[in-house]
Design goal:
The chain has 170 residues and is of the alpha/beta class. 25% of the residues lie in helices and 23% in strands. The protein has one domain: TIM Barrel. It has helices at 54-62, 81-93, 106-112, 119-124, 156-162, and strands at residues 5-15, 23-28, 50-53, 69-73, 97-101, 128-131, 152-155. The protein has a seven-stranded mixed β-sheet with strand order 3-1-2-4-5-6-7. Strand 1 (5-15) and strand 2 form a beta hairpin. Helix 1 (54-62) packs parallel to helix 2. The structure holds iron/sulfur cluster. Iron/sulfur cluster binds next to loops. Residues 17-170 form the Radical SAM core domain. Its cofactor is [4Fe-4S] cluster. GO terms for molecular function: 4 iron, 4 sulfur cluster binding; [formate-C-acetyltransferase]-activating enzyme activity; metal ion binding; ribonucleoside-diphosphate reductase activity, thioredoxin disulfide as acceptor.
């Protein structure tokens, strides 16, 4: 990939609440979903945030044995899928798991996958997808790893292999 910069709204270096184990969290800049009461409105603009060097991010993640995985959140990481797939591939090769939060449902992703460059590639390096828009009417603070009850925690490897949706109970 020639352009090695990714537009991020921010990063959490060590998180225990965005998937299992200690994780690096990358917040993508840019989102089209407009969920009511979105908790990260500053991530919506596609020109905000900061351009960051992907190779530097990767080296920092893979050189830290304490970090068990990386989580892409947003914004919506699917809007920069090619770039996130580059990071996902490299960190997964080093044994780190990849979780993605997206406002698209799994069904929407599959139906639009041919029109969206990079989505298939990104899913191929993803372990778990937390899907769907945040629904303020279904908000439940007791839920683990998701904001509203409509969102699903999907085992992507199993779901892609079987063409059925396998959710994970956390
Ligand atoms: S998908 Fe996430 S960042 Fe985008 S509007 Fe919904 S809650 Fe906000």
């Amino acid at each position: 990939m020639e352009d090695r910069k990714i537009r991020l709204a921010g990063m959490i270096y060590e998180s225990l609440s965005n998937g299992p184990g200690l994780r690096r969290v990358l917040f993508s800049q840019g989102c089209r979903h407009k969920c009511k009461n979105c908790f990260n409105p500053h991530t919506h603009s596609f020109t905000g945030g900061e351009l960051m060097d992907m190779d530097e991010i990767i080296v920092d993640i893979v050189s830290n044995p304490m970090i068990k995985g990386v989580t892409f959140s947003g914004g919506d990481p699917l809007e920069q899928a090619e770039k996130f797939s580059y990071i996902a591939k490299k960190v997964r090769e080093k044994g780190k798991s990849v979780w993605i939060y997206t406002g698209y449902t799994f069904e929407e992703i599959l139906s639009k996958i041919s029109e969206n460059k990079g989505w298939e590639k990104l899913l191929n390096y993803t372990d778990v997808l937390v899907d769907g828009k945040f629904d303020t009417n279904k908000k439940d603070e007791k839920l683990k790893f998701r904001g509203s009850a409509n969102q699903r925690i999907i085992d992507i490897r199993k779901s892609l292999n079987t063409k059925e949706i396998y959710t994970i109970n956390c």
